[in-house]
Amino acid sequence: MSAKTTILESKMIVHGRRASRTISSRSWMLGRDKAFTEYLAPAREKGTKMLKIKNNMWTYSPQTDRIIQISGHMLRQSVMGSDLSYEDMMEDPKLYDDYESTIVDQESIDGKDCWVILLSARRDGLAYNSRKVWIDKERMIPLREELFAKSGKLIKSLSIKEIMQIGDRWYPKVWVFKDELKSNSRGTEWVILKVEFDKHIPESRFSKSALRK
């Protein structure tokens, strides 16, 4: 799934207890360290932008014309009422640096044979102490993930509901995130509408000055 650069258009559907709302965005990513997202709709969110550079994140709101650095306890807050936190959005997918992995089982999901892998944190301070991941043996892509606290309590879950093939690369098209601690949440869908890999992105895209443009 990794690429030198990724440009994608997506929509996030937040399913609340009584209603759902859709937030569309365009994102640019340079490797794993840099990402920039601009929200396009609805009107309330339009123009909001996020910038990630390594372990730092900033947001810009056109309503206040302010740039705020997201840090400390703010990282665990929900992004626009969704089931994702800022910490989830900042997470480096290079999990093998932070977790020790063990194959604990083999199961089938939607007819696809999967390895079930337990990831245990190598150090304190990570958002999740352990993770259980179902990896499709054929396409080498995760189909499900469960995220646990140090106590063993399930905090969040993630399911891949649809996968697309782009060239020789498999990529999730529909993700469903669920904050298992939210009693009133019906989950958040993240749908990839368009994705391009290894296209040129100017370095200036990943700067704080780009947040106000």
Strand order of the largest sheet: 6-5-4-3-2-1-13-12-11-10-9-8-7
Low-confidence stretches: none
User: What characterizes the major β-sheet?
Assistant: 13 strands, antiparallel
Arithmetic mean of pLDDT:
92
- In terms of structural class, how would the helical and strand content be classed? mainly beta
Q: What would the principal axes of the Cα set say about the shape?
A: globular
The SSE string, one letter per element, is EEEEEEHEEEEEEE
Oligomer: single chain
Number of helices: 1
- Helix coverage percent of residues? under 10%
Please describe what this structure looks like.
The chain has one helix and 13 strands. The chain has one helix spanning about 85-90; strands at about 5-15, 20-30, 35-40, 50-55, 55-60, 65-70, 100-110, 110-120, 130-135, 140-150, 155-165, 170-180, 190-195. Strand 5 (about 55-60) and strand 6 form a beta hairpin. It is globular. The protein starts with a strand and ends in a 16-residue tail after the last strand. The model has no long low-confidence stretch (mean pLDDT about 90).
Write the layout of secondary structure elements.
Blueprint: E1 5-15, E2 20-30, E3 34-41, E4 49-53, E5 56-61, E6 66-70, H1 86-90, E7 99-109, E8 112-121, E9 130-136, E10 141-148, E11 154-166, E12 169-179, E13 188-197
